[in-house]
Amino acid sequence: MRTGIAELASKLRKREISAVELTKTYINNIEKLNPTLNAYVHLTFDIALKTAEQADQMLKEDDAPLLCGIPMALKDNICTDGLPTTCCSKILDGFKPYYDATVWEKLRAQGAILLGKTNMDEFAMGSTSETSCYGAPLNPINTAYVTGGSSGGSAAVVCADLAVYSLGSDTGGSIRQPASFCGVVGLKPTYGAVSRYGLIAYGSSLDQIGPLTTSVKDAAIVFDAIKGCDKRDQTSVDHDYGVSLAEYLDRDVKGMRIGVAEEFFDGINPEIKSQIMEAIALFEKNGAIIENIRLPALKIALPVYYIIACAEASSNLGRYDGIRYGHRASSYTSIEDMIVKTRSEGFGDEVKRRIMLGTYVLSSGYYDAYYKKACLIREEINREFDAVFEKCDVLIAPTAPNTAFPLNYKGASPVEIYLSDICTVPVNIAGIPAISIPCGEDSKGLPIGMQIIGRKFDEPTVLQMANFYEQNSGIKAGVYEGGARA
Amino acid sequence: MAVTKTEIEKLAKLAKLSFSDDELERFTAEFDAIIEFADTINQSIEGGTEQIRSVGARMVSFEALRPDEVAPSLPNDKILSNVEGYNGFFSVERSKK
């Protein structure tokens, strides 16, 4: 198993290694592997080395933060002042934000070292990261397969040890599904737990930033560092967790009530179902109580998600007009023509499909039948989760109905790709937290992910259950051999 | 339902997008399948949806509203640093001769 954040922090404090040395090790590893994996799209080595020198100074103080001197990566939709942030879209080619996202502001203040920005589906719209304008990142476990998406690069850099941890964003499973495909840990926090200020918007009522790591403990440490209310994000919530999450992890699972809903297992690959059932049996053997529950509205959660997410996207992406930043068409006959040409040249096919669907469901004559109805059913899904969490502490489900797809898989239509989000989107609709943790592999050696879903702001219980499984199943993050920490 | 090319063209105009003839052909077929998928929202679910009562009640929290006070903002030159050829105006190609 890889050295975790706490152990690396201890080595940095004992001067067994300096932040500069650690950063250089990661830079060498990235130079060696990134040309193949395409996991980073913008590298920030000069700044990383300068920050590492400052971190080494900070580490001389007794109260240096835990993440000080630890090299990490950010998804390319998280704004970094003066550094490229493109959402892997041609329309934001060359864009350098003029402010830091709150999550990066917090990590930077703690001495975190940014190695670069990671590859992703264009504007986070996709499940394979293949819609990136820079080409797809490759899955380090097997480079013939996709990383998943949309935070595919963030999962790949952690898997291949090209960063100690990374941040991704999750609108319908975009942290959890790539974590599952690459065999790492991915946490989607409660909506409102982490500020979205500086996260380039896709579906604003669904988006949430979270960590990708190689252990549950690391996920707890990073979440602890980025969570909290922010006056610049009106949807962020001032919630007092009252505990240090990393210290909460070792609690017993005896007497914990685990809900298992059959709707999450409809149409799931049998190899995945069997691994998840084995995991549930391990919890039961250790004193957890298994409750079979029903969530009937999940059957229509997918169209609800796509209608709401695309409606919000069509509005959020209205700002890309080529006037204030990013790509602008070179020839046009009027301002209107410039905007249409800029958008048509700048957006890829999947983004156009989602803008068009969003425009359709918000347009006169269709609003009530699609958007309003989706919002109504969203309420019903919320009520079903509320009722279930009155008798269960957590739910366990697969993260995805399948393991990683082969690269350039042409057999799937856009709708078939949408269907692969079935296990993750209900969590975003309800705004509740969930983690994906490695849960074995299929017969092709590709990682399987298990999802643990909790009540709003009950990340402590989600992390506790995940940590129990990680410590007792013998299954660790499926990390790439030969990484910087190997 | 079958979405027509004319409807796609109308939608594209609303979304400020344009498609070539080939793209339009492909896009119309794909979009038809996407709308069919969106229509599955109307399938019945156990217990029905007639008990669904309120819309969006929990999506907006007015507790988060803060006093409307003027606070320091980002400097103009920084905000406009990504504008192509900015010199006090947003310059675009002359479009009226």
How do you describe this structure in short?
Chain A has 486 residues and is α/β, with parallel strands linked by helices. Chain A has 16 helices and eleven strands. An eleven-stranded mixed β-sheet of chain A has the order 1-3-2-4-6-5-10-11-9-7-8, with helices on both faces.
* Regions with little confidence, pLDDT below 50 for 5+ residues of chain A: none
Order of helices and strands of chain A: HHEHEHEHEHEEHHEHEHHHHEHHEEH
- Termini separation of chain B: 45 Å
Q: What general outline of chain B do the C-alpha atoms trace?
A: flat
What does this structure look like?
The complex is a heterodimer of chains A (486) and B (97). Chain A has 486 residues and is of the alpha/beta class. Chain A is 39% helix and 12% strand. Chain A has helices at residues 5-13, 19-37, 45-58, 102-109, 152-159, 176-182, 216-226, 245-248, 270-285, 301-316, 335-346, 349-362, 368-391, 414-419, 425-430, 459-473; strands at 40-43, 71-75, 113-118, 165-169, 185-188, 209-213, 257-261, 289-293, 394-398, 434-441, 447-454. With 97 residues, chain B is mostly helical. Helices cover 33% and strands 0% of the residues of chain B. Chain B contains 3 helices and no strands. Chain B has helices at 5-14, 21-38, 76-79. The radius of gyration of chain B is 23 Å and the shape is flat. At the A-B interface, helix 10, helix 11, helix 12, helix 13 and helix 14 of A face helix 1 and helix 2 of B.
